């Protein structure tokens, strides 16, 4: 009987994990199924571009995995039973179920309103393709002089604000940050960020908490009103609640707690990658939700699963960082070089060169999804007797 590996979610991490496993494991004694709610791979890191009218290449999952042996099942995950080792699905023709021997949980995250009244009703987000298209439609309706407020001063908010301001210089764009804009950057990085915001005419509201979102703007924690015809909410992401409804050990925010091989600390036949997993990185610092964390987590999980099943050596070492890549419109960017534990170094790359660098990073990530079996060892190994009998062995 073949060992059944089920990957939930085909974003960057799930798609990469499935392809890497297909490259490592022999199809005669293993089968890999990817479950995804939509038929295409979506470049989530480019949703700010979609929102401003740019078109992205369509990447059907069936085309991506053609000839790899990976099966694609189009369905929405509704529940996971880690005791029975089954996943409940909602498919086009009704409810379904799939069983697994090894589960890779890669359902990612979605925008969250943090309980702020009116955010769900009146704000737009760019956490997915459909929400980005909804924002695109609304921005297209705005006449010259319209006001757009981006709530959230993190990477997503910065990229959204600069992209909108560059593509629509006729609009008044502002950003509201809870702290100091770019306070995690080096001094040189902060200066460049400020310069770009000044050049694009983006107003910056710092130390600003949002207490309520309305159709005509927001109300801050100190009672002030910031007018806006469009409010873009980028103030945080939350993982899907499915894992928290199981007996998996999860953190307070619902992330599955995993070890250095991305394996659940409570259920060793379950792995979590990307935003869904909580893993320690370099220096024992938890990895942040990002593509920069998710891709190495996916590679680590795939290699660990393959090693355990085939009796090979487990991957070692902690995942660390080298840079933070920020697009500031299509013609400017900022590459902040960081230590392995994500602390800023003095050195940065700025301007057009940084924009080209960031574009190369995005294209490389998409290329790795388009070619799922190329970025991994070439040998497809058969499962070992020990791996089949005890697939979660640690050595």
TrEMBL record:
Name assigned to this protein: Oxidoreductase
Residue ranges constituting the FAD/NAD(P)-binding domain according to the UniProt record: 4-276
Keyword Oxidoreductase: yes
SUPFAM superfamilies given in the database record: FAD/NAD(P)-binding domain
Keyword annotations: FAD, Flavoprotein, Oxidoreductase
Species in which this protein is naturally found: Phytohabitans aurantiacus
Cited InterPro entries: FAD/NAD-bd_sf, FAD/NAD-binding_dom, NADH-Q_oxidoreductase
Entry similarity comment: Belongs to the NADH dehydrogenase family.
Cofactor(s) of this protein: FAD
UniProt superkingdom: Bacteria
Keyword Signal: no
């Amino acid at each position: 009987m073949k060992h059944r590996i089920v990957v939930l979610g085909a974003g960057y991490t799930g798609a990469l994990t499935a392809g890497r496993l297909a490259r490592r494991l022999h199809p005669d004694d293993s089968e890999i199924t990817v479950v995804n709610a939509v038929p295409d791979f979506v470049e989530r890191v480019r949703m700010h571009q979609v929102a401003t009218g740019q078109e992205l290449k369509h990447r059907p999952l069936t085309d991506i995995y053609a000839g790899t042996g990976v099966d694609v099942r189009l369905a929405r995950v509704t529940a996971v039973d880690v005791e029975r080792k089954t996943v409940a699905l909602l498919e086009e023709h009704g409810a379904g179920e799939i069983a697994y021997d090894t589960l890779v949980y890669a359902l990612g995250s979605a925008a969250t309103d943090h309980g702020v009244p009116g955010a769900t009703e009146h704000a737009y987000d760019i956490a997915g393709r459909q929400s980005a298209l909804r924002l695109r439609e609304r921005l297209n309706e705005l006449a010259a002089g319209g006001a757009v407020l981006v709530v959230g001063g993190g990477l997503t908010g910065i990229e959204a604000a600069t992209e909108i301001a560059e593509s629509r210089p006729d609009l008044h764009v502002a950003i509201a940050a809870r702290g100091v804009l770019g306070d995690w950057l080096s001094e040189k990085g902060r200066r460049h960020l400020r310069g770009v915001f000044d050049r694009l005419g983006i107003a910056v509201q710092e130390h600003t908490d949002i207490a309520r979102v309305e159709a005509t703007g927001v109300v801050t924690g100190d009672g002030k009103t910031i007018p806006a015809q469009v409010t873009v909410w980028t103030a945080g992401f939350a993982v899907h609640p499915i894992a928290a409804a199981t007996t998996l050990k999860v953190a307070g925010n619902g992330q599955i707690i995993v070890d250095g091989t991305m394996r659940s600390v409570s259920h060793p036949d379950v792995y979590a990658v990307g935003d869904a997993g909580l893993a320690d990185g370099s220096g024992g610092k938890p990895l942040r939700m990002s593509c920069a964390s998710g891709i190495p987590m996916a590679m680590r999980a795939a290699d660990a699963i393959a090693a355990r099943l085939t009796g090979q050596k487990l991957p070692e070492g902690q995942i660390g960082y080298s840079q933070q890549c920020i697009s500031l419109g299509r013609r400017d960017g900022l590459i902040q070089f960081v230590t392995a534990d994500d602390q800023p170094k003095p050195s940065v790359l700025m301007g057009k060169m940084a924009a080209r660098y960031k574009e190369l990073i995005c294209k490389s990530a998409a290329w790795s999804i388009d070619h799922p079996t190329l970025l991994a060892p070439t040998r497809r190994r058969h499962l070992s007797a020990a791996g089949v009998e005890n697939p979660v062995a640690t050595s």
